[in-house]
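CO-FOLDING WORKSHEET

Operator: S.A.
Ligand of interest: pyridoxal-5'-phosphate
Run index: 371
Mode: holo prediction, single chain
Checklist:
[x] sequence pasted
[x] SMILES validated
[ ] output reviewed
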Amino acid sequence: MTRAPVPKPYILGIHAYVPGKATGEDGRALIKLSANENPLGTSAAALDSLISAREAHDNGAAAYPDPDSKALRSALAKLHGLDVDRIVCGTGSDELLNLAAQGFAGSGDEVLFSRNSFAVYDIAARRCGAIPIEADDTDFTADVDSILAAVTERTRVVFLANPNNPTGTWISPDAVNRLHASLRDDILLVIDEAYGEYCDPANQRVGFDLANAHDNVLVTRTFSKIYGLAAERVGWATGAPGLIDVLNRIRGPFNVTASGQRAALTALGDQDFVAASRAHNTAERARFVEALSALGNHGLSCVPSEANFVLVRFDGDVSAASALSALAEAGYAVRHLQVDDLANCLRITIGKADDMARVTATLRQLCGETE
Ligand SMILES: *Cc1c(COP(=O)(O)O)cnc(C)c1O
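OUTPUT RECEIVED:
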């Protein structure tokens, strides 16, 4: 009789995260507008720092990195006006989102988030044996009242992606403050600001201000999106010392590579690149949304986005599946999310101007609007 290790049933309940594709059905390489990467690439200085990293280490790559990412945390604290002891870095913000769930929720506990939100929250909840709970959204936007109505005695963690992936929608600082003010103090509110830097700078501080003032708010940010360093896997979180202490106990001891710390530190110093990336995104997103509004009579519409991608709905004669194929044929990979609510939607990352023009032309042609 053969026996095999028995996985935990709650682990088998996880659907592994499906990353954005870079190839078509036939394996052909496509231009990737499917993973919300920065189309301008990476700050030149940050790239140089990666290249010169070889010379900086007299023993090659044999030494462990700084376990506490001290220089990077100090630079983050300085840039954002935060306390360095209230910052922890992670292997992407993905590590920190998982640790936040694991640190504060377990078997029988509930982890709450909005419907049509980031796929990692469901995985983070199940990984620690907790129960993922989805609150209904409204117009693809987190609904504060519906999140509050879904809170129970067993709720331990609430995740809010702001702006949200995959819908691109955003809730105002007033709405975020109201959500926090109405939550019990023993519930951890995790505000995932992976796309925070794409927002109007006037609205970028709500998470930090809450995290500074309260013991139950953790804000996560990443170098994967506007900083163009997704390959290096660097994220960070800020919150009360008690929260940071918990994450430090359970994170990987050397969770950010030496090259990652170095590149992130240099990228942080190049705020011109960040500003240029934000300006590029704002302009190209507006142009794309405007062009697609002319296809409204074919059922196409854009969900309002504050991020570096747009969720396009196909509610007429042209289906999302046919648009996905036409775009692949034209050389572009976009994201068709495998969830019921979004079956007739495509999430399209805002790319370079000429790529967005070609995407627009492809969709126009598919709608029979050749001129
Ligand atoms: C891309 C993304 C992240 C970032 O993940 P990293 O692990 O930092 O690369 C986090 N949250 C959301 C909502 C995202 O879309």
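REVIEW:
The chain has a mean pLDDT of 95.
The longest strand covers residues 155-161.
[x] output reviewed
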